[in-house]
Amino acid sequence: MTTKEKPVTVIGLGPMGRAMVRKFLAAGHPTTVWNRTPSRADELVDEGAVRAATPAEAVAASELVVLSLTDYQAMYDILGPVGDVLAGRVVANLSSDSPQRTREAADWLAERGAQLLAGGVMVPAPMVGEEGAYVFYSGPRTVFDAHEPTLRVIGRPDYRGDDPALAQLFYQALLAMFLTALAGELQAAALVASAGVSVKELAPYMTDNLNLAAAFADETARHVDARSYPGDLSTATMMGATADHIVAASKAAGLDTTLPDAVKSLYDRAIAKGHGRDNWTSLYEVIKR
What is the structure's pLDDT at 289? Predict the structure, then answer.
């Protein structure tokens, strides 16, 4: 059997799961599917997937079982009753949860003779398997290497190490950044909209602003790794004053201030800890506790 003929099972057929199934089928992998709501598999079966009647049947169909679920509890709910069928299987759990829950899941599967590859898909469903798509993985290196060619179909595999929690940490770290940025976009939109301005007018500047923020990534990493925050170009005091002005502007516009209040709090506490003359990256000393 060639690499492209290796069977794969996908459990969980939300938008992400369905996108993965279609990529596996297009690459020639016999693909078995199961979902709590069986009708979600109808179109995929028409396209060539095999519908399993039970989770046990789905697991038995392939050595590699890919989970696309809400969280790790859903894995226990679905795979808990399948018994000995898990033995010898590799479970690539691409669901989101905490790092500790991920380590516990690795132990739980090991007790049943299976191995965990924890993963985090770093693109939305429409981009799965497309150029630029990538997926974090962590777990046993030999297991990753054995299934990397199959997993590559849904996005460039980015292996982070043996500790199963590492993929989850990278995933959650980037999502923390992403979700905060999205919330910031909405705060910015609400500010200009409060003056009757179309948010469309702001959109190009939002793009420029996000690109500018991205340009600080390497500098941030250097400062944090060295635990040194040179304040020659900007300081926590200067940036904190801006944070205070954003809160004031949001209040004046009658907006919710939860997000700008939280940002201002970081600056206030960093300054209180003596970092007023340090770079804004010194907020790390507050965040890390």
Answer: 79
Same domain, 9 and 145: yes
Residue 2: pLDDT above 70?
no
Q: Extract the tokens encoding 36.
A: 């709590």
pLDDT tens figures, 211-224? 999 999 999 999 99
Tokens 């396209």 found at? 47
Domain boundary, last residue among 95, 130, 162: 162
Chain-centroid distance, C-alpha 54: 28
Across residues 47-59, what is the average pLDDT?
97
Share of the chain above pLDDT 90, in %: 97
Describe the chain by its helix, strand, coil percentages, rounded to 5: 60, 10, 30
Beta-carbon count within 10 A of 50 CB = 18
Please tell me the predicted confidence (pLDDT) of residue 62: 97
Answer yes or no: do 204 and 151 share one domain.
no
The answer for 11, left when phi > 0, alpha when psi is -120 to 50, beta otherwise, is beta
- In this structure, what CATH number is given to the domain that contains residue 124? 3.40.50.720
80 and 194 part of one domain: no
In the predicted structure, residue 95 carries a pLDDT above the cut 90: yes
d(CA 148, CA 146): 6
Q: Structural domain tally of the chain?
A: 2
Average pLDDT of the residues of the chain:
96
Q: Which tokens hold the place of 234?
A: 């900007």
Reported as type and span, the H/E element at residue 185 is helix 165-193
Tracing tokens 């995933």 back to the chain, one arrives at 171
Domain span at residue 157 reads: 3-162
Residue 141 sits in the same domain as residue 195: no
Are residue 153 and residue 182 in the same domain, yes or no?
A: no
